[in-house]
Design a protein that fits this description.
By secondary structure, the protein is an alpha+beta fold. 35% of the residues lie in helices and 22% in strands. It is built from 15 helices and 20 strands. The strands form 4 sheets. A 6-stranded antiparallel sheet has the order 1-3-12-11-8-9. A 6-stranded antiparallel sheet has the order 2-4-5-6-7-10. Helix 13 packs across helix 14. The longest helix has 33 residues. The chain is elongated, with a radius of gyration of 33 Å.
């Protein structure tokens, strides 16, 4: 395959049209069945499969850019840092056409991978419609993203949840379009696609996904699978229906339980990850991730290679060497330079994560669930002498100490001292009741804040997570009740203790020896009147 660099917008458009059939159609054995895409100049790039051309004629032309050299980009206004990417898609060794599709828009900070499914090339059509629709919807809502970046207040204020809602709406719009397209052609009935997308905004990565395409996050030497598969195997294990060993024997274990386009509406999952300079993300189809299921360390080593282009090539080669049973797609995004990590920010984020993980309420949560809770927490700073919460005030949030020292007062009496890892106000997560004590910062302190409204939002939307949190909360309450019962028992024992007053003060039982006397009434002559 010839790799071409386009220098002008017109060349890029012409390149997209002239190479679509050549790159995605049938090839001789001497031509590689993969294409490499490297980011350049901030333009959007999208793979257009040959069999999706008919659908794309209705959707409009899509530019395609192939590049060989690494380009230094201008600073991304969305994240305040350089973001570099490399992408590669390959048909694999057992398929005759590629149903995977990906999109990269450096200017928007949007990266998408879709893995289509359906007979008669319908999977290619579904994945093409999905990436195009998501792209259009995000571009349409860039004012929303700009307000979030600017920190607008009042009616223009935008929250993380607003950005997530926008992405989830875009996924549902894609599902509706794919479903409508399938209804027009009997051969395409039931077509659909998985989807994994990442939107970089400021210092955060907004992630949305449906199906078993995945997002991995590499920070330093730690690699984490951020997404959770929507397939039969994972659902059986997550719902405790079968053990991992038993679920592995299920015939249709890899069948997806959610897909974009099979139905008019779909339920995507979403997450927000704080980003550090030097972080790297991998978005990939299951044709790649399935070969690292039991060897995530090898995935981390390949993903850690300094050159992103080499990294994606090695990842795809590894999958092909192990069988290449499915189409393989990988998009690698690097925030800033891989070897120039912001250590201070990384340390602070790790402190938040580790502090939360040690708390009894959140101890059983997995990594994705911890990220979900961290997504809705805030960090507040308190100066010495500043009141965190006051006795008698209505409680609305849980406070968790990250750094510093605080003192707890009740009725003017010092009853406790809080340090890193301690918390106060957990009852406010389930009810609005008066605070039972006053907490004042003794030293400069940083506290994580988790509001009741955000806690309830998690409970409503994350059912499996809700069960864990409510069960743990029940355990916390049982522990507090046990402590209270123990204290009451000790007080009761004190009240029922043997009276030792007689041992302290001698009691004279002889009435005659008492220094008291009963005097007779005075004679009448002494009575007045």
């Amino acid at each position: 395959m010839e790799l071409v660099v386009a220098d002008t917008a017109r060349e890029r458009r012409n390149l997209g049209r002239s190479h679509t059939r050549t790159l995605c159609g049938p090839r001789s054995a001497s031509v590689r069945k993969s294409r490499f895409l490297r980011g350049a100049h901030g333009f959007e790039h999208e793979r257009v499969p040959r069999n999706a051309l008919r659908a794309n004629e209705r959707l409009g032309s899509i530019p395609l850019l192939l590049g060989r050299t690494l380009v230094r980009y201008p600073r991304n206004r969305m994240i305040g840092a350089e973001a570099q990417f490399a992408a590669l898609t390959d048909v694999g060794r057992q398929r005759d056409h590629n149903e995977d599709n990906f999109l990269v828009d450096k200017k928007l900070g949007l990266f998408v991978v879709c893995d289509g499914m359906g007979g008669h090339a319908a999977g290619e059509v579904a994945s093409a419609i999905a990436v195009r629709t998501l792209h259009e919807e995000v571009k349409r809502e860039m004012d929303l993203v700009s307000d979030y970046v600017a920190g607008s207040t009042g009616s223009a204020r935008v929250t993380k949840r607003d950005i997530i809602n926008m992405l989830e709406f875009a996924v549902n719009r894609a599902s509706s379009r794919i479903h409508a397209e399938a209804l027009k052609d009997e051969r395409k009935r039931g077509m659909g696609t998985t989807l994994a997308a990442l939107l970089l905004v400021k210092s955060e990565a907004f992630i949305v996904w449906v199906g078993d395409s995945r997002v991995y996050h590499l920070r330093g030497t730690r690699i984490t699978q951020v997404t959770e598969d929507h397939n039969v195997y994972n659902e059986l294990v997550r719902r405790k229906r079968l053990t991992r060993e038993q679920a592995a024997e299920v015939a249709q274990k890899n069948a997806v339980t959610r897909a974009v386009g099979v139905y008019e509406h779909v339920e995507p999952e979403s997450l927000v990850v704080d980003v550090v300079q030097g972080d790297r993300f991998l978005i990939c189809s299951d044709g790649l991730s399935s070969y690292f299921e039991d060897d995530i360390e090898s995935l981390g080593r390949l993903l850690s290679l300094p050159d992103a282009e080499v990294a994606v090539q090695k990842l795809v080669e590894h999958a092909n060497e192990l069988g290449g049973k499915d189409n393989i797609t990988a998009v690698v995004i690097t925030v800033g330079e891989l070897d120039k990590r912001d250590e201070e920010r990384a340390r602070r984020l790790k402190l938040r994560r580790d502090t939360l993980a040690r708390m009894p309420l959140f101890r059983p949560l997995n990594e994705r669930e911890l990220l979900r809770v961290l997504e809705v927490t805030e960090v507040l700073r308190f100066d010495p002498g500043e009141t965190v919460m006051g006795e008698g005030e209505r409680g609305e949030a849980l406070f968790i100490v990250l750094t510093g020292t605080l003192k707890v007062w009740r009725g003017g009496t010092l009853i406790a001292e809080l340090g890193p890892g301690d918390h106060a106000g957990e009852m406010a997560l389930v009810r609005s009741s008066p605070r039972s004590a006053t907490v004042i910062a003794e030293t400069t302190s940083e506290l994580m804040l988790l509001r009741r409204s955000d806690f309830f939002d998690i409970l409503r939307k994350e059912h499996q997570l809700a069960v864990k949190l409510l069960w743990q909360f029940l355990g916390v309450l049982a522990h507090r009740l046990e402590e209270t019962s123990r204290e009451l028992g000790a007080a009761k024992e004190e009240l029922a203790a043997e009276d030792v007053t007689n041992e302290i003060f001698d009691e004279d039982d002889d009435e005659d020896n008492r220094k008291t006397a009963l005097l007779p009434p005075p004679p009448n002559s002494m009575r007045g009147g």
